[in-house]
TrEMBL record:
<feature type="transmembrane region" description="Helical">
    <location>
        <begin position="223"/>
        <end position="242"/>
    </location>
</feature>
<keyword id="KW-0472">Membrane</keyword>
<protein>
    <submittedName>
        <fullName>DUF898 domain-containing protein</fullName>
    </submittedName>
</protein>
<feature type="transmembrane region" description="Helical">
    <location>
        <begin position="95"/>
        <end position="118"/>
    </location>
</feature>
<feature type="transmembrane region" description="Helical">
    <location>
        <begin position="65"/>
        <end position="89"/>
    </location>
</feature>
<feature type="transmembrane region" description="Helical">
    <location>
        <begin position="139"/>
        <end position="158"/>
    </location>
</feature>
<dbReference type="InterPro" id="IPR010295">
    <property type="entry name" value="DUF898"/>
</dbReference>
<dbReference type="Pfam" id="PF05987">
    <property type="entry name" value="DUF898"/>
</dbReference>
<feature type="transmembrane region" description="Helical">
    <location>
        <begin position="23"/>
        <end position="44"/>
    </location>
</feature>
<keyword id="KW-0812">Transmembrane</keyword>
<feature type="transmembrane region" description="Helical">
    <location>
        <begin position="192"/>
        <end position="211"/>
    </location>
</feature>
<keyword id="KW-1133">Transmembrane helix</keyword>
<feature type="transmembrane region" description="Helical">
    <location>
        <begin position="262"/>
        <end position="282"/>
    </location>
</feature>
Amino acid sequence: MKDCEEPSRPLSLDFKGEGYEYFKIWCVNTLLTIITIGIYSAWATVRNNRYFYANLFLDDSSFQYLADPLTILKGRLIAVTCFVFYLVISNFYPIVGVFLALMMFIAIPYLVIRSLAFRNRMTAWRGVQFRFNGGYQDAFVALYVWPLLGVISIGLLYPMTLLKLNRFIAANSAYGTTNFKFHATYKDYGKIFLLIFIGIIIIGLMSVVLLSSTGPEMMLVSLVFYGILFVYAKMAFINLFHNSLRLKNHYFLADLEFNGLFKIYVTNLFLIIVSLGLYLPVAKVRLTKYIVDHINPYALGDFGEFASAEKEKVDALGEELGQVFDFDIGAY
């Protein structure tokens, strides 16, 4: 990226949401969801997403969340109906239940594609919607084949498994008519997995050596160390994903730091426990704000002209959102 001939220009990326503001939305959503026995959850999802999208600004323009609550509700009702139908049939006709489970296994890649397509189409920036162009075969390989190879290889191919999944999602996503590109390699993911594996081995050895003398205290120490590994993995994978992402000549530089992210997680967890869960929405805002503050977009050339050109291309296609059979399956 640094070898590019054109000078790059940093773009502002800011999250302007406030914890107390979102807390009020969260309280109303939770109350109405309970009162309506879950029916309002679709409207709650839309309100939550619209709040976060409307407060996320790229180059001084906010994102938009375009989903209709009724569309989400229909998707969830279909999913719940299918699940209940499967449970009833499996109880009375086990053989038919096995057949239905096989059908669901085959259908999952398709449902994942439709969910990703829905999520992207419901996201817009400067009047241009995002898209998802992934196919069934690629989804099947990313969701089933590579994870199986990861198990067969005793973990050696786990980095490739995550790489293939992230590449499937990123490279098939598009802003308007321009697809993202994903440049991470097996080596990039392998370094992170190796450090995580070494950490797990060290924790395991400490547990075996010290368990007899320290008892339950060692379990607490192990949990702390596993928490440290979790935060490291979260930080490393977020940085790697965004640093490997490009949109035409535009790119990201993510620089999340372990100390800062660990501090956010520890204080959030403590305050959530002390407040009996009421701090949860504020914790979500704090975490989002920290991550966004450490992701820096850069543009090569005029990014405004690029966005305007994409809008013209999309408008020329004449696609109406309502004609597209994309739906939510509860991935939000």
